[in-house]
């Protein structure tokens, strides 16, 4: 057993009082709620009448429900674009910033701004930027003699929304990578320079292997975020009736529960999404053992 | 040697150019927000960053009675403060037990707590909503801030890691002086953990202030809602009326408190991320 002080006599009561809120949250809010959602996923319930047990039928219909399959496909596409985008761009920015040049803290502040501010507020501006007739981007395109584009229409909305999501996440990834980069001992670079290694060689032979823990961590966090992405999608692609032009699974859960009062179906979707994320995490942890270098 | 210097100079220039190009993309939306908020509604789509003529009317409109913007601002403030207080209090309480006190099942309990980090929040959304609805609390802010008072893996982990760095001799010395468990927590650990508490406070406040989904579920009806839901609602209303200028004024006011905190306490923002990201 690890070190620590022993509670004396009546202090045991205090120990459990200090732990009580956390224990309550652990039992009811976290694991309890997970089990409750699992239970709800086998029912049909609109919260007005009493719940009806329907067995696996919510799950079976999910596989034939075109809307849900589309939401799944959208989520997968979103993650496939978003995760590499965030990881690669924020690593690139961090590598640039790690070159000891002046004014880095100012740049860091600017890149971090979207992380601090709410997605709702910034999405309002992005709506103006992406506007079809009056938007900033199309104005620039016209100035360059190109045809204006409908940025948030069905075929292009995914890319446009992913770009905003990446824009909002670079600051955080950059900090993670900067922390990893500054931890690499300078001697490694000095030694390789004496051996005549070029900058690219240094990057691929020293920097990249030694920063794999940060890459792993950032990929994991970005993946979790990708599967939970909601704010920008809600703000940029929302249509009437709580619909979206690129509904993702979280959007579908939200809509089924809070627009259609189908809490059973929404629960089944939530469980399914959880299983997918859990499976991905398992793959990541396996990959961590194979590829991540811990000193 | 001279070659090396030239190479470094070129690389420096390229670095500055690329970083500046990126910075323009990062910052322009904010500049556009501020610029538009000072334009007259008639000029809302002019392609310039300098409003001409500039006006404060949009900010005045926000405080018109029918928009209820001040109510939303107050709601966001109260909710975010309560969430922050709840997290600071309950997370540091649990963190103290996990870091300092010896008791049976400590490691298993801590592992269980960390495991909850892997439970996606959308899974817990529906049962929590049903319970709060059953309690008759939907439509109020209670379901948004109350859960902050039952701890959380993220905050507890962050504070615990910091508590572990505090020298154990301090505890032993306090024990010899006859200090109780509570006194050691309150008089020794909490005051020494100020940087970690500040990082958690900022992190939590930021998350609560910017939260969209929870208020959308529990307080969906304007005007009695938070700034985020209110702005989303205004967007629907105003795009029809075509007043982006007022919308941008609202957006700017809504991000202003966090921007100010960020400029004055930047290191705590950065620290929070670095603390969670690096020390695994």
What CATH architecture of the largest domain in chain B do you see? Orthogonal Bundle
Q: Which fold name corresponds to the CATH topology of the largest domain in chain B?
A: MetI-like fold
Reported for the largest beta sheet of chain A, the result is: 2 strands, antiparallel
Please give the most extensive interface between any two protein chains, plus how many residues each contributes: A-B, 99 and 96 residues
- Provide the CATH superfamily of chain A: MetI-like
From N to C, what is the helix and strand string of chain B?
A: HHHHHHHHHHHHHH
Spell out the blueprint of helices and strands.
The complex is a heterodimer of chains A (295) and B (280).
Chain A: H1 11-40, E1 43-44, E2 52-53, H2 57-62, H3 66-98, H4 104-116, H5 119-130, H6 136-143, H7 154-182, H8 186-194, H9 199-210, H10 212-228, H11 231-237, H12 249-258, H13 263-291
Antiparallel strand pairs in A: 1-2
Helix pairs in contact in A: 1-13, 3-7, 3-10, 4-7, 5-11, 7-10, 7-11, 10-13, 12-13
Chain B: H1 2-37, H2 57-62, H3 69-100, H4 106-115, H5 121-134, H6 142-145, H7 153-164, H8 168-176, H9 181-192, H10 194-210, H11 213-218, H12 227-241, H13 244-264, H14 266-278
Helix pairs in contact in B: 1-13, 3-7, 3-10, 10-14, 12-13, 13-14
């Amino acid at each position: 057993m690890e070190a620590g002080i022993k509670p004396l006599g009546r202090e045991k009561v205090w120990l459990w009082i200090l732990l009580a809120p956390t224990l309550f949250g652990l039992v009811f809010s976290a694991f309890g709620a997970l089990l409750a959602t699992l239970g709800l996923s086998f029912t049909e319930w609109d919260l007005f009448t009493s719940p009806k047990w329907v067995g696996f039928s919510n799950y079976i219909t999910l596989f034939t429900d075109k809307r849900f399959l589309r939401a799944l496909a959208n989520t997968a596409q979103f993650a496939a674009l978003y995760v590499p985008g965030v990881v690669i761009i924020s690593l690139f920015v961090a590598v640039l910033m790690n070159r000891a040049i002046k004014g880095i803290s100012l740049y860091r502040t600017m890149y971090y701004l979207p992380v601090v501010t709410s997605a709702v507020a910034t999405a309002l501006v992005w709506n103006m930027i992406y506007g079809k007739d009056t938007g900033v981007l199309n104005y620039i395109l016209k100035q360059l003699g190109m045809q204006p584009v409908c940025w948030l229409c069905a075929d292009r909305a995914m890319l446009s929304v992913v770009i905003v999501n990446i824009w909002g996440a670079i600051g955080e990834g950059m900090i993670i990578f900067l922390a990893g980069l500054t931890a690499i001992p300078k001697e490694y670079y000095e030694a390789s320079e004496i051996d005549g290694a070029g900058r690219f060689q240094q990057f691929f032979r020293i920097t990249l292997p030694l920063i794999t823990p940060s890459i792993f961590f950032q990929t994991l966090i970005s993946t979790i975020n990708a599967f939970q992405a909601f704010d920008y999608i809600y703000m940029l692609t929302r249509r009437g009736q709580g619909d979206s032009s690129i509904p993702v699974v979280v959007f579908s859960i939200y809509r089924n529960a809070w627009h259609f009062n189908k809490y059973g179906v929404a629960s089944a979707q939530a469980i399914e999404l959880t299983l997918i994320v859990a499976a991905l995490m398992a793959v990541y942890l396996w990959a961590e053992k194979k590829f991540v270098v811990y000193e | 040697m001279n070659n090396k210097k030239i190479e470094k100079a070129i690389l420096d220039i390229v670095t500055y150019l690329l970083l500046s190009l990126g910075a323009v993309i990062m910052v322009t939306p904010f500049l556009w927000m501020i610029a538009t908020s000072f334009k007259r509604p008639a000029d809302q789509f002019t392609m310039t960053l300098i409003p001409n003529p500039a006006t404060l009317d949009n900010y005045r409109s926000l405080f018109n009675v029918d928009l209820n913007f001040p109510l939303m601002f107050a709601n966001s403030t109260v909710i975010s403060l309560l969430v922050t207080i709840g997290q600071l209090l309950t997370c540091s309480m649990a963190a103290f037990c996990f870091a300092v006190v010896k008791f049976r099942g400590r490691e298993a309990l801590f592992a269980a707590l960390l495991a909850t980090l892997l439970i996606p929040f959308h899974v817990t959304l529906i049962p929590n909503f049903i319970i709060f609805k059953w309690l008759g609390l939907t439509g109020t802010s209670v379901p948004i801030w109350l859960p902050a008072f039952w701890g959380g893996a993220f905050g507890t982990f962050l504070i615990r890691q910091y508590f572990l760095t505090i020298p154990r001799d301090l505890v032993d010395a306090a024990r010899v002086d006859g200090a109780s468990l509570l006194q050691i927590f309150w008089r020794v650990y909490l005051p020494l953990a100020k940087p970690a508490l500040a990082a958690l406070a900022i992190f939590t406040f930021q998350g609560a202030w910017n939260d969209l989904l929870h208020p959308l579920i529990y307080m969906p009806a304007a005007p009695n809602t938070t700034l985020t839901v209110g702005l989303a609602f205004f967007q629907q209303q105003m795009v029809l009326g075509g007043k982006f200028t007022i919308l941008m004024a609202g957006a700017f006011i809504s991000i202003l408190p966090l921007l100010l905190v960020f400029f004055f306490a930047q290191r705590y923002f950065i620290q929070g991320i670095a603390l969670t990201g690096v020390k695994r």
